[in-house]
Fold this protein.
Amino acid sequence: MLFSELARYYQKLEDVSSRLKMIDIMADIFKNADKDEIKSIIYMTEGVLAPAFEGLDFGVAEKLLEEAIAVAAGMDKGEVEKAYKKYGDMGIAAQELISQSKLRRMNAKKYSVLEVYGVMNKIAVTSGSGSKDAKIKMLAELLAGSSPEEAKFMARYPIGQLRLGAGDSTILEALSVAFTGSRESKAELENAYNICSDLGYIGEVLSKKGISEVRSLKVSLFKPIRPALAERLPTAEEIIKKMGGKCAVEQKYDGFRCQVHKSGKKVKIYSRNLEETTDMLPDIAKAAITEINEEHIIFEGEALGMNEATGEFLPFQETMQRKRKHGITEKIEELPLHLVAFDIMYLNGKDLMKEPYEARRNLLENAVKGAKMITPSKRIITTEPKELEEFFETSVEGGLEGIVAKDLKAPYIAGARKFSWIKMKRSYKGELSDTLDLVIVGYFLGRGSRTEFKFGGLLCAAYNKKRDMFETISKIGTGFTEANMQAFYELLSKAVVKQKPARVDSLITPDFWVEPKYVITVKADEITKSPMHTCGMQEDRSGEKAGYALRFPRIVGDGFIRRDKSPEDATSTSEIIEMFNDQKRVSVK
Ligand code: AMP
């Protein structure tokens, strides 16, 4: 496929306002591409070069791109800066300048998708001294040979501003339509994606070998599994009941989730959002080699600091100090991490995902036997709510977050929040003190005393997994410092899109729509019903439509973006409904 053709499709994706149409356009792209191109097209559409766990960044800053556009268009850098300021979008700036460039006709090329992807890869792997100039040269050559329409997307791609609005779920559905003729295989594709976290790879296997091959994909070393997530319930009675009368109850540790892959002396560690973090955790990587009895293993646990004198685990804020890229060696001595292991997914060639929890737990305990820095989570097995409650209280008194109950018979359910794991934290036992992770879908200008700011508040949404849509739940106008507002403005003004993104469902129109990609943590006093918001919107008995909203919402923490969460990791609509119901139950008591 020519890149110009892909750019035409991307333009259509940008213009479309319905998710279903997006799927049709993407399915057309896949149908019209060569099988060898599918993988690259998927990565491009996601705005990346490879799956997140490979950590391949473009290494292209806006300034570098401006220089490349200037060279390509035969203009001064100042003109590019001016155009960028004018349009607020590097893609449109490049499109305009390339169309005005006198060099263009001389250099016109017909790039294939693979050529463009290949150059972008080269740009990404170019590092070290002189790499900046080399990157500028490669980008400039690419842009100089392109049409204005191609330049628009070429310029946006390496700075992460493609803004096509296609999430994992949309891409999977389009793959299903393109290669199996209906949406029905989406669930199977999703299962396969959950065990390898690589959409490009799934697309390639599907297009080349068909759905039966996708069905039989197995867990493999150094391809991280999308983590299992826990549901929540507020009381011990409800947990035992939901678990069918008997379950395991593990302590819940508040640190960093680590998925460890080990094969001989090679170890890689992945975070909850599947980025590789081995370099940040050399002590844990070493312990995995020296302390684990098994040759080939994938297991999971929570890494956290410990007060060596008392044997108590440290609170999250203290463990967090280890999350750094520099000065790690000194910090390791000061704050060594322990890994509390709680699951195992693969052992010496055997995929354990379908094994029941109890069998996996035995294998896990055996694998970490005798280890010092890696220990299995503490747990009990019980049929009694009272015993669960006591275990919970002792855990909380010991400085832990709470407990996670586990269904003894359940397989490892990758990438999903299911009742096979149920968490109970102290905070659920009262008012709504748990926080929500919400996706920013728009923002407002400053009003009243804030008119001097170009930012006055956010429009935020929860993620409805079934619909693959972002549904609004709150406007947030309080809790911002001046520095915050400035920072939000700078970040969000670069993510503005001209119309409501196709996957956003909203009755409110903000001053600016933004591409749903940033997640923030929000606290509120209560979840209420409101006709203004689309989150979980349904008709009530009187025929009035109402969704869920937040009372007194405010931004928490240092008030900034949760880089560890993708928009699809935001609190889901079904979680909001559960929290709303739990809140009612607690307040009735
Ligand atoms: P939350 O982040 O509140 O949704 O809780 C789920 C997280 O708890 C998981 O992602 C793990 O990182 C963490 N966790 C701590 N201890 C355990 C445990 N024993 N079993 C499972 N997850 C645990």
In short: The chain has 22 helices and 23 strands. The two ends are 63 Å apart (CA to CA). Residues 230, 250, 252-253, 257, 272, 302, 342, 377, 404, 423 surround adenosine monophosphate (CB under 6 Å). The chain has three domains: 48-159, 229-424, 436-588.
